[in-house]
Amino acid sequence: MFNGFSHSVKGASHEKTGLVCQDSSAYKVCDDYAVCVVADGHGSKKHFRSNMGSKFAVEATISTIDRFYADKAGFEESFPKDHKRIIKSIQKQIIADWNTLVEEHLKNNPVTKEEKSKFTDEEFEAIPPESYYGTTLIVGVAGKNFTFGVQIGDGTLVALFDDGKAVMPMEYNEAAPANVTASMCNSNAASMFSAFYRDGQKLIAMYTSTDGLYTSFGSEFDFLDYHTIITDQLSDIDNFKKVIINNLTKRAHFGTEDDISLSCVYDKDLLGERSDVIRAEVEANKKRAAERKAERLKMHVETE
User: Fold this and answer.
1) Number of C-beta neighbours around residue 158 at 10 A
2) In terms of C-beta density within 10 A (0-12 exposed, 13-18 middle, 19 or more buried), how is residue 281 classed?
3) Which one, out of 1, 120, 199, 201, has a CA that is 20 to 30 A from the CA of 180?
4) pTM of the model
């Protein structure tokens, strides 16, 4: 029923400065559910182990969803009735699992002299240890009868339901004060999540991506059109993987030149059934894009 794909590429800005890729991505498909997840480690100085933090965020997410699905029948019965409470429990468990992984890593890998050398003693003592690993997180989960997602920090989740239209069902709503980054490392991280839940609509495909992908496009229209186009290509997954990896590598040199991660899960059967709908949506998007371009040209001429 389900299949998936995930990949992370280093951004051009990190290639220039010699930084490691701070993104992580993964997907998991089972008979009854599928998960797509990406995480973007923070680039600022105090988050000097954020590449590990993003890795742990992905691992914590997969293990958490697996744990909730351990009683598949019970979960699928209770979730639609009480999804708000259960989603909050999932968010809290992801944070708890992430903190455990961070603590274990720090215990086994104490901060080195080289890592400390970038700070004064006073600066270093002021940094909470979990901040070394700061990261965002975007998760999409597809079940048999429902779809949901959770997010902390920036990045995007795009879904195509059975009408074939690409939508962002989870509006970015960073529940943090001005100039404070919503992050897995924050003490109140569990309260900073955004979430969405859908039932009654069959899911064709769902994508999570770090913000480097979104910023490589000129507009939200172009960004959503991109997801419709690549969904049309999922039927040939082997070729899709080659094309998308090449495309993400190129896109990592556009916009903010940031690392890019993309993870997707899709329903193979429904993709085949709705292929005509998706192709019609691709053609409609091309027409709308041409109309927007013509309108921009018209406005440009009128202002001269």
Assistant:
1) 26
2) buried
3) 120
4) 0.94
